[in-house]
Write a structure and sequence with these properties.
Length: about 220
Amino acid sequence: MPIGQLLKADIRFTLFSNLFNTIENQRGKKTAFNILESAIKTFGTHGLKTSTINKISMDAGVSPTTLLTHFSSKDILFESCIKYTRYLYQLYVVEEVDKQSTGSEKLKAYMHASVSWPGYFPNNLKFWLSFMHELSLDKELIELNKRMVETGTERVEQLVQLCIKEGSIMSSDGLPEVINNFLTGYILNYYTTKDKKSKKIDKNFANSLLAKVIKH
């Protein structure tokens, strides 16, 4: 989905409704959507441990009881934020990949869409970093992240195989893992540095990495 649409709250609400389709009441969906977006901001700012139901409900403009009606615990809410943030990311990246026709162009689009994502969704990025921090503290989150990393690596592997088939890449040889590790490092660097030059260097590195493995 084009980034311009994803930035619109009404479009994100529609996507939220599709993802969390067990909520039947439209008004209830809107309330749950507002809670989720407030939770993403709160978790991103304060982390899981120090974020409270009271803080999140206050930001969302609802009572703690209303929040718990839609998300039965803070942990369930946190996991819903993970699911929602990843869904938005996937929609944007897949849209950009699908615009391309060749394997090499699809792989380039995947890389470029991934590194441009943080600039469009700073709240989701801060939340994702909070999630990364929690990985060292929660075994269930470790397993969840492991599955997501495997899914991401498989997606890159499919693109690499398209490149191999068309002759633009000779061998995968661990390339999917390298790309995934680079993207994770880029996201961490994007948030932790305010140096625009460093951010540009990372984007240039994405092009450099691709240039080394894709034959022109």
